[in-house]
Amino acid sequence: MSTAPVEHSHPGSWRVRIKHHTALAYESPVAASYNEARLTPSALNGQLVITSRIDVKPTTRLDSYVDYWGTVVHVFDVQTSHTELSVTSTSLVDTVPRGGVGADIDWSALAAPTVIDRWCEYLGPSGPVTIGPDLTDAIAEVRASPNPSAGVQVALDILTARLAYKPGATDVSSTDTEAWALREGVCQDYSHLAIALLRGCGIPARYASGYLHPGAGDIGATVVGESHAWIEAWLGGWKAYDPTNRRPVGERHVLVGLGRDYTDVPPLKGIFSGGPSSHQDVTVELTRLTR
Fold it and tell me: Measured between alpha carbons, how far is 124 from 257 in angstroms, rounded to an integer?
């Protein structure tokens, strides 16, 4: 899951069409499969979802719910024998620049019991966010900042200097400290490490999953994209940052889900009865449309 850094930015709101297609092929017939899809854009933070649908082949019924973290989840099972599974999400979304709120909170405010109690799930280790001892010096550098807002910028500076963007260097099971040791990674690694550095010095931080339009933003042009990840830090209010691109989260970003880390927001996961899957093909197309 990754999107390479992009160079351009245009202020204002965008209308974006997203088509996310996943095709699974199995080496032998699968008797049944049970699946969860987190592919529906979020209606949070001023983002407006105009239309959204998910199509599954073999055809089956879909149910949906909003999970604990506020992400829309579609669940479905296929009870007939099949050798392929196709899941296509198509959405039309209006995005907005999202600066966030609350940049002036001080370190003592973050240490308040009410803040710690409210955001405890975004303050400690979780899954691939291990906050291991290898990060101790970097965390201390962030904590030495005059205030938490400055600390976020220091954390992003550290990652820009430390990590090289390299697709394939890691995978979805890689931890923050593994990427730190490699000095390479993709957007989820940048996000997990940013979260680790912030949580390590008491700043609540969460993982955001969605898409980033990588092109020039030409109206009507369809570009090939990928799933993307960024973070939100609580500084008296949630403020979004893109550590991979070292840029604000804005109209190019389409939010799908929030959680503690990647394991809370995978686009598609499931279990099946049968032989191993032999191939997975994922394509994402993004088109900026006229408002």
Answer: 20
Question: What domains sit in the chain, N to C, each tagged with a CATH number?
Answer: 14-94+266-289 (2.60.40.2250), 107-264 (3.10.620.30)
Give Dmax over CA atoms of the chain in angstroms.
60
| Contact present, 78 and 33 (Cβ < 8 Å) | yes
Cα 181 to Cα 128, 142, 174, 189, distances in angstroms = 14, 19, 11, 11
Which of 24-38, 101-115, 183-197 has the lowest average pLDDT?
A: 101-115
Compute the distance between CA of residue 31 and CA of residue 223 in angstroms, rounded to an integer. Answer: 36
Residue 11 has pLDDT above 60, yes or no: no
Contact (Cβ atoms closer than 8 angstroms) between residue 67 and residue 116: no
Q: pLDDT above 90 covers what percent of the chain?
A: 82
Q: Find the mean pLDDT for residues 21-33.
A: 92
CA angle 3, 264, 232 (to 5 degrees): 60
As a whole number of angstroms, the distance between CA 26 and CA 85 comes to 9
Q: Would you place residue 279 in the very low, low, confident or very high pLDDT band (cuts 50, 70, 90)?
A: confident
Q: Which residues make Cβ contacts (< 8 Å) with residue 161, sequence separation at least 6?
A: none
Please return the burial class of 184, using the count of CB atoms within 10 Å of its CB with bins 0-12, 13-18 and 19+. Answer: middle
- The closest of 49, 97, 38 to 242, measured between CA atoms, is 97
Q: How far apart are the first and last CA of the chain?
A: 29
Structure tokens at 224: 């090939």
Query: What whole-number distance in Å separates Cα of residue 220 and Cα of residue 87?
Result: 24
Joined tokens for residue 261: 């880390």
pTM above 0.70, yes or no: yes
Residue 3's nearest CA partner among 282, 211, 250, 288 is: 211
